[in-house]
């Protein structure tokens, strides 16, 4: 499949790209080479290749979400610049 100048003009119109005559010529040549490369890839025999999501065999590296011990309230509030008996005190963002 070759790419014509009219094809590139249509694609640039769909992409709302305003290309000059010189740019249309450059794009036609470059996109034609890209399409040719993809055609080379389609010639490869991939019948025995299993579909995969990644080129590397990755395993899930996340830890299980298990509830553990938590800090006592006094320890969690110990370094807060402002606090009351139960919570951090922060400046009002939306007004009083």
TrEMBL record:
The UniProt record lists the EC number as 6.3.5.-
Biological process GO terms, please? regulation of translational fidelity; translation
> What keywords were assigned to this record?
ATP-binding, Ligase, Nucleotide-binding, Protein biosynthesis, Transferase
Reaction(s) catalysed by this chain, per the record, are: L-aspartyl-tRNA(Asn) + L-glutamine + ATP + H2O = L-asparaginyl-tRNA(Asn) + L-glutamate + ADP + phosphate + 2 H(+); L-glutamyl-tRNA(Gln) + L-glutamine + ATP + H2O = L-glutaminyl-tRNA(Gln) + L-glutamate + ADP + phosphate + H(+)
Q: What class of enzyme is it?
A: ligase
Role summary: Allows the formation of correctly charged Asn-tRNA(Asn) or Gln-tRNA(Gln) through the transamidation of misacylated Asp-tRNA(Asn) or Glu-tRNA(Gln) in organisms which lack either or both of asparaginyl-tRNA or glutaminyl-tRNA synthetases. The reaction takes place in the presence of glutamine and ATP through an activated phospho-Asp-tRNA(Asn) or phospho-Glu-tRNA(Gln).
Q: Which family does it belong to?
A: Belongs to the GatC family.
Q: What is this protein called?
A: Aspartyl/glutamyl-tRNA(Asn/Gln) amidotransferase subunit C
Source organism of this protein record: Anatilimnocola aggregata
Gene name of the encoded protein: gatC
